[in-house]
Amino acid sequence: MGNIQVFKVLNNNVIIANHPQFQEVVVIGKGIGFNCKVGDDLPLTSVEKMFILTNEQEQEQYKQLIPQVAEHLIEIVNEGILYIKEHSKVPLNEHIHIALTDHISFAIKRYDQGIVLHNPFLFETKEMYPEEYRMAEYVVELIRKGFKVDLEEDEIGFVALHIHSALTDQHVNEVKKQSELVAHLVEIVEKSMKFHIPRDSLDYSRFITHLRFALERVRSGKVEQEIGSLDKLLYQEFPDLYSLAWKMTKIMEEKLRKPVYPSEVSYLTVHLQRLSEKNSGTDDRNFV
């Protein structure tokens, strides 16, 4: 398979090397730089379970980050990323090495300074991305054991967003905006229907799941089959619920800057009606 030649050793876990196919690369792996010298040849088979950053911009950002973080952190984060990679069905965007290392480094510093960063979208993140959340729990547990820090559940939510970002090839800011939008839509529903949806309930989980897939359909431009006859029936039977669903789709259009097809209004109305029925003593005539 060929060799890579060591160009520079950044620390015991990170080296810069010349790759036969990608030219200069950043190679990350536990102990990869230990006892290495400039000019040494390493067989590619020896980096089979390690990461090679090939994107030039990612390489430069990672090189700048390395001196600013603890060497032990590189090792632990890479162990976490290997776990994510092994439990994922799609490739990871290599930017996760930078994003996750940088985020966790600051999380540890905040912990040491007694600063708690509240995650306002924790419930939404947990419901929208359950697999990513479980992976994030594993990563945060590695950090807890490795650095003896008791990171809060809020931090698991933040890490889950970074994982989802890497799995879907979206910038983490876009992922955060989606969680924020879902939280905003839930708030509108609760204010309009005048009741709180218990965050640990099946109803909440179902509703969040529907909103997640609705947003993904909008983002991807997927058109759901039109349901004309049902649409008219829902409008006639539940005019206030239908109006609320229409309002929600307009907010989705505004925030995502993409069209929301009429069928989404009907699907939302059905879910809102289910919520209304589950809320004893409240019906669609009590809306504001």
TrEMBL record:
Domain (PRD): residue spans on this chain: 68-173, 174-282
Keyword hit for Repeat: yes
InterPro entries associated with the record: BglG_antiterminators, CAT_RNA-bd_dom, CAT_RNA-bd_dom_sf, PRD, PRD_sf, Transcrpt_antitermin_CS
Pfam families for this protein: CAT_RBD, PRD
SMART domains registered for this protein in UniProt: CAT_RBD
Keyword DNA damage found: no
One record GO biological process: positive regulation of DNA-templated transcription
Record keywords, A-Z: Repeat
Family in the record: Belongs to the transcriptional antiterminator BglG family. GlcT subfamily.
NCBIfam families: antiterm_GlcT
Name this protein carries in UniProt: PtsGHI operon antiterminator
Organism: Paenibacillus antarcticus
